[in-house]
# Entry
Amino acid sequence: MVFFVRTASERDVEAIRELLAETWHATYDDIYGVEKVNGIVATWHSAAAIKASIGKRNGEFLVADDGRMLGGIGFAAMSPSLTKTAILHQLYVHPTCQKLGIGRDIFAELETCFPDAEIMRLEVEPKNQRAINFYGRLGFVEVDRTQNCGGVASGIEAIIMEKPLAV
# Structure
């Protein structure tokens, strides 16, 4: 399998939605439970939410595509409130494609998409040690914590990590 990283389009919405659902269940069912993951997937990863991200001004939505399937996705955008900061909102690799370098390749492309950014920031579940280790290998360090990952009053705890970008 050879995956090429490219910009997502509305043609990819259903495949992105399916990848996010499978990845979230594989990663978070044991942490949050199936019912809560179903609710998050239905709202955060709905077709409408994905379309909004793909069309977001000052954002970049990428997919890793081998011509038959999407192996991973990544979405980042400039922060509307933090100066010179790009926010990595999503970086997910399909469970059957992990450990192939897809996440690293998507991230490498994303970090070049924001020439005005000096920092990239993300939120990660504290119990998702695999993701924390991955981001650490990319140069991210913990800078804070939140009780509301992904939005106001979500009640989902997260570690906030940052990485300086080349300027």
Notes: The first strand starts at residue 4 and ends at 7. The mean pLDDT is 94.
